[in-house]
Amino acid sequence: MNYIHFATFDIQAESGAQPIFEIFGWPVNDTIFIGWIISLGLVLFSIVVTRNLALRPGRLQNAIELLLEYIIDTTEGLLPGGGKKFLPFIGTIALYIGISNLVGVLPLAKNPTADLNTTVAFGLTVFLVSQGYGMQQKGLWRYIKGFAEPVFFLLPINIIGELAKPISHSFRLFGNIFGGSVIIALAAFFVPGFIPVPFMAWFDIFIGLVQALIFTMLAIAYISVASE
Fold first, then answer.
1. CA distance 142 to 139
2. pLDDT, tens digit, for every residue of 160-171?
3. For the whole model, what pTM was predicted?
4. Residue ranges of the domains in the chain?
């Protein structure tokens, strides 16, 4: 029992969000603080890049333009007419979650997406945007009426299914990223001081990029379904 207790303690110490300071009595966790740094970095990066746009772009501008074109084309494929309209929203989600999933490769840095608060916040944001866009496209009454189709007795089932989307959306990302950190913590516990680089790269890089792509694609799909 003691062995299991110490193993659990180590996993929590490695993977759980830990408070590092307080603001007006409210604790700020390390995952939230790293999330702030990522947000600030993205803002500063976007300012620097957009101030130096050129007709003959360099490698950095070319790479960014290719990324933006990929996001637009992907969004347009699932949501016709919404590629450029939702580029700021979808692009922000893709970049923030992608970086948040990858930041765990840095020493002493924790993935903000391994904190359920972060993933639930994004899941609720996508949910609100999709519902708002659906109401805008269909009109309020027609949108509400759609929950009672094809037959009226499906109304509660359709409502429950819609409310389950942000929960599954956020828990899927959280579970995969947090699970990866738990596995790495277990490996560090059983083999102290030795974690193979390919093993960390698999969870922090490959799985992180895949989960960022899945979360972004689901966000586009939810918006598309709400507007149909």
1. 6
2. 888 888 898 999
3. 0.80
4. 2-227
